[in-house]
Amino acid sequence: MQSGYAAHPVKIDSAVLIMLYGHVILIEDVEELGRKGDSLKVRAGFYRNFLLPKGKAQLLTPEVLNVTAQDLVDIIKSQLNRDVDKRLVTVPEIREVGEYVAEIKLHPDVTARVRLNVFAK
Fold it and tell me: Please, what are the domains in the chain?
């Protein structure tokens, strides 16, 4: 079972499982729920019947939060005008919004640590 889901799925038949809860990322502010970019655990029915049809949230999947070494290299190039070889960049596995630390090997004895703040798109 994927992390972020309820430990007690409801079994409909031998082939279909319905999850009671899921993690979503808000695409826009939702009154009394949260702000754009917030990661929340919500009931599947609330997501399916309200958030999804109104375009207010998206399921939280690794693809939504996919941050790669190339993404970091592109950001460094655009903001600092520096070229970095992506093979020297180590990015941790990112599964949810939050703060992470990536490392860039600048020299055999020097490693830079870069703080990444990951937000939903």
Answer: 10-59 (3.40.5.10), 69-118 (3.10.430.100)
Kind of pairing between the strands at 39-43 and 17-18:
unpaired
CA angle 114, 116, 117 (to 5 degrees): 150
| Res 15 pLDDT > 70 | no
Q: How many residues are present in the chain?
A: 121
pLDDT in tens, 76-105: 888 889 899 989 999 988 777 788 999 999
Which are the contacts of 55, defined by CB distance < 8 A and separation ≥ 6? 27, 28
